TrEMBL record:
It catalyses: a 2'-deoxyadenosine in DNA + S-adenosyl-L-methionine = an N(6)-methyl-2'-deoxyadenosine in DNA + S-adenosyl-L-homocysteine + H(+). Keywords: Methyltransferase, S-adenosyl-L-methionine, Transferase. InterPro entries: Ade_MeTrfase_dom_2, DNA_methylase_N6_adenine_CS, M_m6A_EcoRV, MeTrfase_D12, SAM-dependent_MTases_sf. Gene3D superfamilies: Adenine-specific Methyltransferase, Domain 2, Vaccinia Virus protein VP39. One of its GO terms (molecular function) is site-specific DNA-methyltransferase (adenine-specific) activity. Belongs to the N(4)/N(6)-methyltransferase family. This is Site-specific DNA-methyltransferase (adenine-specific). Coiled coil: none annotated. The keyword Translocase does not apply. One of its GO terms (biological process) is methylation. The lineage of its organism: Bacteria, Pseudomonadati, Pseudomonadota, Gammaproteobacteria, Chromatiales. Its EC number is 2.1.1.72. It comes from Rheinheimera marina.
Amino acid sequence: MNKPFLKWAGGKAKLAERISATLPKARVLVEPFVGAGSVFLNTDYEHYILSDINPDLINTFTQLQQQPMAFVKDASALFVAANNTDAAFRQLKQRFNTTADLYEKAMLFVYLNRHCFNGLCRYNKSGQFNVAFGKYKAPYFPTAELLCFADKLSRAELHCRGFEKAFSNLPSDSVVYCDPPYVPVSSTANFTAYSEEGFGLVEQRYLAHLAHKCKVPVVISNHDTGLTRALYQGAEFQSFEVQRSISQDTENRGKALELLAAFQPQEQAA
């Protein structure tokens, strides 16, 4: 299995094989919420259309796509002992939040991802990355993972945009896989700060609406709750247990029910 080079809250590395088996065959895979790209990495479509609303994520993928060898070499230079301190982390985080150099910003995004607490990607209301230092003994630089990702990007086009735009003008020979921020399973589990905008019930409902009316197959991942089953009513469901991996409350990193909802194209629906 190919692993992504970024840590990512809600990443699908452990579920990629199961999700891949659920996705219908097509020429193009469209991902409106690409995240760290685990499903992208572990499927074999002729072409990929990868979108995310997070500009730093898409910029990092773009810089890697355009100049992979230089990017890997230059980013690795940040992974030195002198930069693995709270003071250095704060300084580089400030640089990330202020630089207008997209290449530098992409390298710093990889550095922050591997040095910050739990690999979280979180922004404040001003749009600044605000995750604390992770205090890891020796953060891993993902050379092999970066090169694997760069190789696969030769088949991909990248877009920084909201999910609703990703559903526009879909190729007829495509399938859509959606991994949105999940509905909360408790009042303390509502983490949706992958971007400044957040992702609430209105967005969950609209995504379900787009999936229901889409003219190509759509598969959505989410928590298995009464709400998601109601939103995705009419889709084919798969439900199974998964281990929560990101929670500040370590005692709540238990089992959760995952739902895969597969929607048939509108014109084929009964």
